[in-house]
Amino acid sequence: MLLMSRSGRLTPALAVEKLGVQFPQPTGTIFAVREASLSVQAAECVGIVGESGSGKTQIFMAAMGLLAAAARTDGSVRFEGREILGSPPAELNRIRGSKLTMVFQDPMTSLTPHLRIGTQLAEVLVSHSQMSWHDAERAALRILERVRVPEPRRRLRQYPHELSGGMRQRVMIGMSLLCEPSLLIADEPTTALDMTVQAHIIDLFRAMREESRMAIVLISHDLGVVAGLADRIIVMYGGRVVESGRARHILQRAEHPYTAELLKCVPDLKGPRLDRMPSLAGQAPSPSSIERGWAFAPRCPRADARCRVERPLLREFPAAAHQVACHFPLSS
Amino acid sequence: MSAVQRLRSNIGAVCALAIIVALISLALVGPLFNPNNIESLDWAHVAAEPGLIGAHWFGTDRLGRDLFARTLEGTRVSLAVGLAASAISLGVGIIYGAVAGYVGGRTDHLMMRFIEVLSGLPLIFFVIFLTVIFGRSQYLLFLTIGAVGWLTMARIVRGQTLSIRQREFIEAAVASGAGSARIIFKHVIPNLLGPVIVYATLTVPQIILFESFLSFLGLGVQEPHSSLGTLIAEGAGEMEAAPWILVVPGSFLALLLLCMNILGDGLRDALDVKER
Amino acid sequence: MTRYFFKRLAGAIPTLFIIITAAFFLIRAAPGGPFDQEQALPPEILANLQSAYGLDLPVWAQYGRYLRALAHGDFGPSFKYKDFTVTELIEQGFPVTLQIGTVALMLALAFGIPLGTFAALHHNSAADYAAMSLAVVGIAIPSFVVLPFLGLFFGIYLHWLPVAGWEPGSIRHLVLPVIALCLPPLSIIARMTRGSMLEILRTHFIRTAFAKGLALHVVILRHALRPALLPVAGYLAPAVASIMTGSLVVESIAGLPGIGRYLVQGALNRDYTLVMGMVIIYSALLIAMGLVVDLIYAWLDPRIRFGR
Asked: Taking the model in full, what pTM does it have?
């Protein structure tokens, strides 16, 4: 359902505004996310790209209310117009798992070992709607067919350890589709899987895109995975958003030097053979470090003295619908 | 934070340690301040309540013996037997565990199986059994009490030995031609200090408890000595008429055991990497 | 599953047999005889007594007699309680001990597990510290101190419950003994559950359960509890051993006519057959407990069931 706000503009499925996530520790605070803002419109697929520690997962853990108890947040996260950041679990449970769902990156450990697949699927429907267990298991069967799990009837009765990694991931995806969510967040859904299985899962996502009006957030450190599926791409670094725009635009004409470096890292089958894999020099900043100037400056080929001292703010460049946080974007 | 700092920040453990020290000091020094001794029968004040009369601060028992003196003696006996038996059982446990861990292979396997079998059996039945066979004797007492603590210590030590054995300096010692026994005593054992201290602190109260248990049942320390367990047994019998005969030694024992356990837990938190 | 059970059963029977044999020969090897504590008896009377009890036969013959009698459920006569056979004493005392032991175990589980779960859910809060402090007290202070204190407080000062004694079918007399008996295992179970639950709550599959929007009680009861109880299942056999040990003292203090009290009396009186009978019963109980624990383990974790 596409929601219209009073101004007539479409309400985004998810709107994150200046979100900060910190973990106070006795040895110092960890800043996982620093003032990140982004939005996901209904029915669009947004790819979130960044290295480990860039904060890309924590933003959505905060949205889902799954942060560790010690976490502190500030800012705002709105789902379909309603503020959900800091909501009590009882309220969050109304949308979690039904309208707002998440798939995690480790299918081998993400399912409860002592419960049958059928139970773990059916319980989503039973707790979110008034469905009976019987009807819920029938719906579970249909979902398994939809995510292309072979021999679905048999699988329903099995335990997680009897399924392969790829199948378990399909089950996880199926679990998140049961209640026809408005937004599905997929956190590195293919990282733990074999190459061939990865391709199948990506195909599955593509099919889901065509079948439904669901918004998808695809988190990955691998631009290659995101490239084929996303409408828009958001790049994160050091807990901040550094570039955001249409996927085609970013893939062909990235503005931020970091994005450009990331693109270079994606192997190109059609290009010339390289002697060495290109990689970024240096290391991503640790989330517990205090920012001095701009954290990416030490690794940036275009940085100068100004960059080391003054952190660039996110602004629209070169046009609306594209944002970049850089003093010297590539096309300037 | 270093281990000592962590321990010091644990208020419970610090208080526990203070109380233990206070109790031990009282047991050792108290008699100097007490005009009464454990044997004198004060016929004028039989089963008297605690108070200032006749300087019987904790009252007297059914025979007129001063409870303060008897409780302190009981504490001394319990501590003495407890610590002595602990020392024996810990010694046995450490050596057993170090040998098992160091030698490894089938010997280790067999030794650990033996421990497994023993751990499953409640010790009290052994004791009762042996008491029936051999009658009540002091040696039997020490033997059986010592049998309580060595199992866990042997297991811990074996685990530690296994991991230490693989470290480089052991290889160096072997290469330099040192014999196995020498290696065990000079290299392996000194490195076990951390876990040993922790579990020793937890074993001592277990042993004291077991000794009190046996004495309570009448199978432990014999007359004329009485440990806290014996006193509690007496007190339980006099509960309605003279409750303090139960309450005083009972509180001493409870306090002692409680503080030792808290201290042991605190040490475990401070020295181990494992979280609570 | 059934094959697994029978395999374990087959292993348990020889163990029991070994215990019986070892106990028998150990007792026979002991110095002194069961009549030594009595006043010196004239030799003819001693000889009569010995033959009446079968003590003049060669050891192997005695062993055979004993085993055959055992197979018929006959544990022999008590050497001290002249009017009773051991079997009769067991029949009298076993139900009482079984009653208080079972109830104590049930209470320990019924209160220990929720207490531990509660502490885990309120990790590092005041309630957590309070619960765990109580647990330390429960573990450290022995039942032979707790029971008299309870009796003093509830019996003598408050007059709510009887301090000692027993009437058939009476529940009031069992309240304090059962409480004293269940406190140590309850405390251990609470601590164990708390630690285990804390670990389980950090796993990925619990994260998934929360992400599915399931209510807290569903996540705990359906997803977290079974794996969290695995260590508690492992503790069941030691718990029974601990309750057995505790019952000796609790029965003695409270004057309950259970087999624990008989065992203590038997030890003090050097009553061979009585002690043997009790030891056999307790060993059988423990072994049975071990089997039950294995079954529970297999049920808790389906991976074990399939032999992985």
From this structure: 0.83
